[in-house]
Amino acid sequence: MVQPSFPVVTESDAQLPLYLTSIGHWEDQERTVRPEGFPDYQWLQAIDGTGELAVGGVTQLVKPGQGFFLNSNEPHAYRPLTHPWGVHWIAFNGSLMPSLMRQAGMERSGVYSLSDPESIILHMKTIYAMSLTGRPFLGMECSKLLYAFLLDLVSKVRMNAPSAAHNSLKLQPVIQFIEENCHRAMTIGELSGCIGVSPQYLCQLFKSTFKMRPMEYVNRERINKSKELMFHDPSLKLQDIAVRVGFDSPSYFSSVFRKIEGVSPEHFRSFGYSP
């Protein structure tokens, strides 16, 4: 057994978007039954042996390389089916969790397969080591590592899904076309023609892969290009930048910029990109 870590969560730590509550590693995980659930979110990563998770009225096998996510306060139970059942575990909380898990498609507790479980285990080992240091602002340091861990977990779970990986690969010609042509007007027909599908199907692919419509993606690419121009040539007028990145009017450029960035282009430039 590896000694688990339970870092002190201060009042300021609990205000962070993400914060660590406990972390550890059982070389042979025992049977655990929680009729009232657990107060924090959890991720348990199986490294050897086979176990079983019961949650939400469903029982699932947990094989090596798989992990399972548990929502806070949800009744659950898990147990080994073979010995030893080695498991890394981490518990965490924070206001960011619901939206982050929703984006990952992991709103429900259950078992998930990963495209690269070793990288997730490395994250967990790094967080565990940090949690034992007792260094100043430990909560913030663990929060930063936890955020990186969860982002990586999200990507490894999503990319392991055959449909997600296939869609991402299929859309690469469209993404490249957008990057090369966002300085001019583009139609949904041009984009769908890059991969020989209908505009309606292209919209489905973008929504399932990026959670946005194709032209929303185009506008985000244009805004990114506009920020690059502000940085590299501070003397450029905003109306000239709007034209260079494919907007037909400065007012529409400003409207889209504010919607995406939360500030106007003038304000963004004033943050330090003006001469």
Automatic annotation (TrEMBL):
It comes from Cohnella boryungensis. The keyword Lipid biosynthesis does not apply. This is AraC family transcriptional regulator. The keyword NAD does not apply. Keywords: DNA-binding, Transcription, Transcription regulation. InterPro entries: AraC-bd, Homeodomain-like_sf, HTH-like, HTH_AraC, HTH_AraC-typ_CS, Tscrpt_reg_AraC-type_HTH. Pfam families: AraC_binding (PF02311), HTH_18 (PF12833). Residues 172-271 form the HTH araC/xylS-type domain.
